[in-house]
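Table S2 (text version). Query chain:
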Amino acid sequence: MVRVTVAKQVPPINSQQLRDTFKKYDSNGNGFLSKAELENAFKSLGSPFPGWRASRALHHADANGDNSISLEELDDVVNYAMKHGYVLGK
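Corresponding structure-token output:
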């Protein structure tokens, strides 16, 4: 008997879907993502180390050094997340 295992694959999401996912984690609605909000977003995307991933995303995207991600900086977070293979539905 031959067994065939088929892995369920989740298709990558596009950058707009990923951007919308991050934006929904702006829990206080101020238009900025804090490290805690980024951590929650990465947790929802299946990161095994969401705190570390949030810190790295801040490091890469926080151009003005205010320790939060503005809507203008969000594209850099999206690019960072896509570069590291984050998808919805993991």
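Notes on Table S2: Residues 38 and 54 are 5 Å apart (CA to CA). Helices lie at 15-23, 35-44, 50-61, 74-83.
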